[in-house]
Amino acid sequence: EETKKDIVLQLVSDGLFFVDFKSRRERRLQKAVNEYKAAQDSAKKKRLNIWQYGDITEDDAKEFGYSKA
């Protein structure tokens, strides 16, 4: 049986993947973006996996945290 489960949404919910919301937004993807943002916020709040030490996307020192290479 084939499922239509959103694998990316599950990874974000589990704190194993994060979404960069700073990129351009397309109106047709707004529903998915909102779902991913809610899932990511929930994972951050629960400190799951990549969020266990806090927000990896923001840091005062450039050598720490996430940066676009």
Automatic annotation (TrEMBL):
Asked if Acyltransferase is a keyword of the record, the answer is no
Pfam name, any one: SNase
Q: Which residues form a coiled coil?
A: 22-49
Q: Where is the TNase-like domain?
A: 4-52
Task: Name the UniProt key words of this record, in alphabetical order.
Answer: Coiled coil
Query: Which InterPro entries does this UniProt record tie to the protein?
Result: SNase_OB-fold_sf, Staphylococal_nuclease_OB-fold
Looking up Gene3D superfamilies in the UniProt record yields:
2.40.50.90
The reply on keyword Protease is no
The protein, known as: TNase-like domain-containing protein
Q: Which organism is it from?
A: Oppiella nova
